[in-house]
TrEMBL record, chain A:
Originating organism: Actinopolyspora biskrensis
BP term (GO), one: ATP synthesis coupled electron transport
Reactions catalysed according to its record: a quinone + NADH + 5 H(+)(in) = a quinol + NAD(+) + 4 H(+)(out)
Name of the protein: NADH-quinone oxidoreductase subunit K
EC number: 7.1.1.-
GO molecular function: NADH dehydrogenase (quinone) (non-electrogenic) activity; quinone binding
GO CC list: NADH dehydrogenase complex; plasma membrane
Automatic annotation (TrEMBL), chain B:
Lineage top rank: taxon: Bacteria
Entry's localization field: Cell membrane
EC number: 7.1.1.-
Role of this protein: NDH-1 shuttles electrons from NADH, via FMN and iron-sulfur (Fe-S) centers, to quinones in the respiratory chain. Couples the redox reaction to proton translocation (for every two electrons transferred, four hydrogen ions are translocated across the cytoplasmic membrane), and thus conserves the redox energy in a proton gradient.
Signal peptide: none
Reaction catalysed by this enzyme: a quinone + NADH + 5 H(+)(in) = a quinol + NAD(+) + 4 H(+)(out)
Name of the protein: NADH-quinone oxidoreductase subunit J
Source species of the chain: Actinopolyspora biskrensis
Length: 99, 360, 670
């Protein structure tokens, strides 16, 4: 086993997250799939840090975590606002931009 | 926590072997890797949103341990504490507020979305894996880091790098966090000039001006000492049931579960009995049979309406004299029809087994 | 000295007078000859710009200017002397100085132009005086104020006189063109003077457009002259006419003829002249009888050095004249409108003039002589017709007239004298001029003599017929107007016209009678014109010279007799007979001239306009709109991509991502 396996795992997780974004309709679950993608990227960053032997990858992953936290806060607040007015968290219901 | 500790010790033992991946780490990977994948798949395919959140928690925990296994100890703990502990909890809180939704239905609205997603997913994964495998064969990892060294993976080492080399991004992300929390507050409590809450006097005036559908609140359930269910309807002065006091939700419940409560207090079919509590002989016995028949008749037209059940029961009376009607199949509970006058009839297991039954 | 050389195109035996050297003007009178033009022009400006303030005295000013011009031209005439009347040039100003094109505005005072100037101003003055009375109560004005209309009328008349004078006095073809266009404009304004009548407006436009067709010919001729000779001044062009190649010379000659046909109403551009009778009668008299329509003859006479060099060109001119004179005669026999008959008579008489100038040196001067006599008697006839109309509530249908000689004696006498002159009654002016033309026509060589001479003689007979018919129907016979009312409901009360109208008629009648005697006295006119038009040469006639006058008079008498037989003997029916021969039917339809115009010119033009409109609408607009609608259609199709579903967008992103990764992997370094 080589660290490459971590990267493969990360790629698979990322793909699963992507497919989840396409398939799920609940906005919150969709958001969680995005979080999964971020985590997959974090894993690959840490793996690269380990391969390189330097700390930079971990620092990047750290900042990714911070930003992800902020993003989750704001995103969920937005979903709550939408839910309050439209009583629905389905992303298919937010289709006002259709032709 | 045990996982975390073992992960740290595993990283320590590989200090001796420069760059190679130790067996401990291999074991950890081959256990937690598939677990993470399983969690991801479970998250995507779980029907309920809460289940999805829980599967994701599994994935994140696995990833946290994997970080530790790669001598990113601080990051691993941060993952578990912040990511799993805070962020996923936040998700669960929001799911609690939102509740169930039509978005959970299985039917896909967009044509071909699922198929395309599957195909593209497989293709994407294949491409990435192929690319990674092709470009990263024969990669020799470097020696694992000393956690406490300035370039190490523990808190001290990470902190040293962050506060020196990456100070500016750190400041930026701090600003970002502040902005995010402000934004969340604005979104949650802001918006266009919300009206201040009306005082009671204002509410009453609005009510009597006709801004609401009725000036008085809905009547509460008519709970006598004879029944303590909130499904009990209230009675009007002439003894008939006040329809406003009937609850929508409860009316959608299969009627045989509530029939007993209704029958117990419905004014027409049953007179209030002064001696109810004493358990003495009551003229209600004979009425029981009639009740059953009429309530069986009431079965036929009781779907979700809060209509005057008793009135129809009266009409159905002659037709159901034989006691047979179409919906007897459902009325298995008739057997356990309320006998006693106390009206504490079967509280049929009205606990919501599944959403489908409660919401007809 | 072979007279037939006039038909050849050899240069060496050119028998025209060597282009006389042009001298500068001498003396104050000649030097200020531009006043002749300027005074009427100024009068026109004042009358048209002054507005209603000039209503009271406008007509007087209009007459005064033309009378002043006439006086000046008499002075000019006497100042040039009789004998050695060489051409004199008055340079006014440099007009178009553009590199190689140097056009100066100058005047050329020579016998030809002097003759015309006298005619224009003299007859013009008489008609101006006549108009004072004729337009006195013009009720058909726009504003209802008669004086406003009369003032406007005099303004336009003055403008016409000024433009015509520029035409004849100019010393280059370009100045001639300026005057040419000016008279075209004046003609348009005057024909359509009663604009509110659709027929008048249409006739004015028709006249202008048909003149335009001729003007194109004139313009092209000037272009050719300039292209080959580098100049358009008369003296230079005529001096170097021999340099032009034969083909170019012929082309110039034919193009000038085209211009003349347009302005003079010759076949094939004759259809506008009868319609021009929509204008007031003084306009018909001045413009469409005496002066403007003679501008074509003037042009050809002026360009005689060119024509003398091309026999084919001359032949074409003569043939056009012959055809036109016959066409005019035939149609004139079938009309009942007194003015239209006179209009076709004009067409026919100008055909005579064209025939004359087309005969070469044998006929230039004869054509001019006939032009002058025609000016007198035709103007007199038109004024007489106007007088008749004036007394008959503006009725023009001769079938409503009859027996008017007792009620309008002066008109009858003057009209009668003009009539006699026109049909060539011996010793009146028309006799001399027409006879000379007929003789000269017979003098053409070979078959041309027979054809042209025969046409001229036949035309004389027909002229006598229709004019006699006109006289009989109008002045003799039973009074068909008694106990009837005119078109506007008033009963007929024929009366003589006021002296302001009869005076000019009398003067013109005197001219009709005496002019011939004056002109032929010692060949005065011909010799006067010879410096410009060359010596007159008698041709070898195919018939003996004594036979021709007898033949002509005999045919004329026959025509008179026939007319008397047709209309003089029995009563004239009030309505047109419907069962008539095909020739009469054709003549009533202008010998299908208008139908031909419609088929050849109008319908293709309208069709072209329709086609262009359709092309514009369907093609150009269709293309533009089509592009727009194609964009619309494309967007209609493409907008379906905006489903509004976030997941569809995510799908697109993923597709793009997959493609990118695949591309990178395929082209990346292995």
């Amino acid at each position: 086993m080589t660290p490459t396996h971590y990267l493969l795992l990360s790629a698979l997780l990322f793909t699963i997250g992507t497919v989840g974004v396409l398939v799920r309709r609940n906005a919150i679950v969709l958001f969680m799939c995005v979080e999964l993608m971020l985590n997959a990227v974090n894993l690959s960053l840490v793996t690269f840090a380990r391969i390189e032997g330097s700390i930079n990858g971990q620092v990047m992953a750290f900042f990714v975590m911070v930003v992800a936290a902020a993003e989750v806060v704001v995103g969920l607040a937005i979903i709550m606002s939408v839910f309050r007015t439209r009583r629905s968290v389905s992303v298919d219901d937010a289709n006002l931009l259709k032709y | 926590m045990t996982f975390a500790v073992s992960g740290a010790t595993l990283a320590q033992t590989t200090l001796a072997q420069q760059g190679a991946v130790g067996t401990g780490e291999t074991v950890v990977f081959w256990i937690l890797g598939p677990l993470a994948l399983l969690g991801a798949l479970g998250m995507v395919f779980a029907r309920s949103a809460v289940h999805s959140a829980l599967w994701l928690v599994l994935t994140m925990l696995s990833l946290g341990v994997l970080y530790m296994a790669q001598s990113a100890q601080f990051l691993g703990f941060t993952q578990i504490i912040v990511y799993t502990g805070a962020i996923m909890m936040l998700f669960l809180f929001v799911l609690m507020v939102v509740g169930r939704d039509a978005s959970d239905s299985v039917v896909e609205v967009l044509r071909g979305q699922r198929l395309a997603a599957a195909v593209l997913g497989v293709a994407f994964a294949a491409l990435l894996v192929a690319g990674l495998a092709r470009s990263l064969t024969d990669v020799v990892p470097a020696a694992p880091l000393d956690p406490w060294a300035p370039g190490g993976g523990a808190a001290g080492g990470l902190g040293q790098v962050i506060f020196t080399d990456y100070l500016f991004p750190f400041e930026l992300t701090s600003a970002l966090l502040i902005t995010a929390s402000l934004g969340a507050m604005v979104l949650a409590y802001g918006g266009k000039g919300r009206k201040p809450r009306m005082s009671q006097r204002e509410t009453v005036e609005a009510r009597f001006r006709g801004e609401y559908s009725r000036p008085s609140p809905l009547p509460g359930p008519g709970v006598y000492a004879t029944a303590n269910s909130v499904a009990t309807p209230a009675l009007l002065p002439d003894g008939s049931v006040a329809e406003d006091s009937l609850s929508d939700i409860l009316d959608t419940t299969p009627v045989e579960r509530l029939r007993a409560d209704r029958n117990a207090v419905s004014g027409r079919t049953r007179k209030p009995d002064a001696h109810a509590l004493t358990g003495g002989p009551s003229p209600a016995d004979g009425a029981d049979e009639g009740d059953e028949r009429s309530s069986a008749g009431a079965d036929t037209d009781d779907t979700a309406a809060e209509g005057p059940v008793n009135g129809s029961a009266e009409q159905e009376h002659p037709s159901s004299g034989s006691g047979t009607n179409g919906k007897n199949g459902r009325g298995e509970d008739n057997g356990s029809a309320p006998v006693g006058n106390d009206g504490v009839t079967e509280n049929p297991g009205t606990d919501a087994d599944s959403p489908e039954e409660v919401r007809q | 000295m072979d007279p037939r050389n006039g038909w050849g195109d050899s240069v060496t035996t050119s028998i025209l007078a060597a282009p006389e050297p042009v001298q500068a003007a001498q003396g104050a009178i000649q030097g200020n000859a531009w006043l002749i033009i300027a005074i009427p022009l100024l009068g026109a400006a004042v009358l048209l710009l002054a507005g209603r303030r000039a209503n009271g005295w406008g007509h007087l000013l209009g007459c005064a200017t033309v009378i002043a011009s006439f006086g000046y031209s008499l002075a000019l005439f006497s100042s040039t002397g009789g004998g050695e009347a060489a051409a004199r040039s008055v340079h006014l100003f440099s007009w178009i100085p553009v590199n190689s094109l140097q056009v100066d505005f100058g005047l050329r005072i020579d016998p030809l132009s002097l003759v015309f100037v006298l005619l224009i101003t003299g007859v013009g003055a008489l008609i101006h005086i006549y108009s004072i009375g004729y337009m006195a109560h013009d009720q058909r004005g726009r504003t209802g104020s008669a004086n406003t209309e009369r003032r406007r009328f005099f303004g336009y008349l003055n403008l016409f006189v000024a433009a015509m004078l520029i035409l004849v006095l100019g010393n280059s073809f370009v100045t001639l063109y300026l005057g040419w266009e000016g008279v075209g404009l004046a003609s348009y304004l005057l024909i359509g003077f009663w604009q509110q009548r659709a027929s008048a407006a249409g006739a004015a436009t028709k006249a202008f457009v048909m003149n335009r067709v001729g003007d194109v010919g004139l313009a092209l001729a000037i272009f050719l002259m300039f292209a080959h000779l580098g100049t358009t001044r008369y003296s230079e062009v005529f001096a170097r006419a021999g340099e032009l190649p034969a083909g170019v010379l012929l082309a110039v000659a034919l193009l000038l003829l085209l211009g003349a046909c347009g302005k003079s109403g010759q076949v094939p551009l004759q259809a506008w002249l009868p319609d021009a009778m929509e204008g007031p009668t003084p306009v018909s008299a001045l413009i469409h009888a005496a002066t403007m329509v003679t501008a074509g003859v003037y042009l050809i006479a002026r360009a005689n050095p060119l024509y003398s060099l091309t026999g084919t060109g001359q032949l074409v001119v003569a043939l056009v004249g012959a055809v036109t004179l016959l066409v005019g005669c035939v149609i004139g026999c079938a009309y009942d409108d007194i003015k239209k008959v006179l209009a076709y008579s004009t067409v026919s008489q100008i055909g005579y003039m064209m025939l004359a100038v087309g005969l070469g040196p044998a006929g230039y001067a004869l054509g001019i002589m006939h032009l002058l006599t025609h000016g007198f008697f035709k103007a007199g006839l038109f004024l007489g017709a106007g007088s008749v109309m004036h007394g008959m509530n503006d009725e023009v249908n001769m079938r409503r007239f009859g027996g008017l000689y007792r009620y309008m004696p002066v008109t009858f006498v003057t009209f009668g004298l003009g009539y006699l002159a026109l049909i060539g009654f011996p010793f009146l002016s028309g006799y001399y001029s027409k006879e000379a033309i007929v003789s000269a026509a017979f003098g053409a060589p070979g078959w041309q003599g027979w054809v042209l001479g025969g046409a001229a003689v036949l035309g004389a007979g027909l002229t006598a017929f229709y004019m006699t018919r006109l006289m009989l129907m109008t002045f003799f016979g039973e009074r068909r107007w008694e106990n009837r009312t005119s078109a506007d409901g008033r009963p007929f009360h024929p009366h003589e016209s006021p002296p302001v109208m009869t005076g000019p008629m009398i003067v013109l009648a005197v001219g009709s009678v005496a002019a011939g005697l004056v002109f032929t006295r010692g060949d005065m006119l011909v010799s006067f014109l010879s410096p410009t038009l060359g010596e007159l040469h008698e041709g070898h006639a195919v018939l003996p010279h004594s036979v021709i006058p007898v033949l002509t008079l005999g045919l004329s008498a026959l025509g008179v007799l026939l007319a008397w037989l047709v209309v003089g003997r029995g009563p004239v029916s009030e309505t047109r007979p419907q069962r008539v021969s095909p020739l009469v039917r054709a003549a009533r339809a202008d010998l299908y001239g208008n139908a031909l115009n419609r088929a050849v010119a109008v319908r293709p033009a309208v069709g072209l306009a329709d086609g262009l409109t359709r092309f514009d609408r369907a093609g150009v607009d269709g293309a533009v709109n089509g592009i727009a609608s194609s964009f619309g259609a494309a967007s209609q199709v493409l907008r379906r991509w905006q489903t509004g579903f976030v997941r569809s967008y995510a799908m697109s992103m993923l597709v793009g991502g997959v493609l990118l990764v695949a591309a990178l992997l395929s082209v990346g370094t292995p």
